[in-house]
Amino acid sequence: MTASAKLAVVTGGCSGLGQASAEFLLANGWHVVIFDLNKDSGDEIAQKMHPSNCWFDYVDVTSSALVEAAVNKLAGKEIRLLINCAGVAPAKRTLNREGEAMPLDDFAKVININLVGSFNVARVVAAAMAKNSSINEDRGCIINTASVAGYEGQIGQTAYAASKAGLIGLSLPMARDLAPLGIRVNAIAPGIMGTPMLLAMPDKVQEALASNVQHPKRLGIPEEFAKLAMHIAENSYINGETIRLDGALRMPPK
């Protein structure tokens, strides 16, 4: 990796939207470091993406020590882009059918991974970006992955929706915090995306999921998320925004 290479960090880059983002960036000349929990096959996944421009590092986004150590390994390199895709999406109602309350630890775990974890990586990477050379007054871009659930959370999504609403609310104040340093902060709020897990479901299930999408009436393609992320990275006037990527979907209660 040369010091002048366009370097991106992608959390959750071993699967789903993170992997699609990493692959798209690599195909467009970026170097990518993946932060993920996939100890068993992370290195293999990174090498398959690109044998010389992609690397894997085992990182728990909720750990200050692991995130700081991973970013410190990149000292001397200019991280120009962070795409935070690491997250979880469990479903659990506030009260179950027996009237029992959701365990507080279950709610806190989702908030800690999706919201606190994204902030944790963003704050450490921002400190590294602040040392970058300025290119047209820009030193770096941070993109968090929110969700339409942050606006229209469904039944059983209290924890997930709250975590994604937090990321939506994070965009503008963090962008304001980092503006004097030339670092931009945005979020993407995907709708129903055709990740490998969803595409493995029967056609009838996929059709039902897509039924509330206005146009085009289908699941989103992960590469569409990746294309939007790269556009945000390259368009220096997009800042402090959360952009919906959902085909005009508005989620029903269930």
Automatic annotation (TrEMBL):
PROSITE patterns: ADH_SHORT
Species for this entry: Glaciecola petra
InterPro entries: NAD(P)-bd_dom_sf, Sc_DH/Rdtase_CS, SDR_fam
Source taxon at top rank: Bacteria
Family assignment from sequence similarity: Belongs to the short-chain dehydrogenases/reductases (SDR) family.
Keyword annotations: Oxidoreductase
UniProt protein name: SDR family NAD(P)-dependent oxidoreductase
Keyword Hydrolase listed: no
Pfam families: adh_short (PF00106)
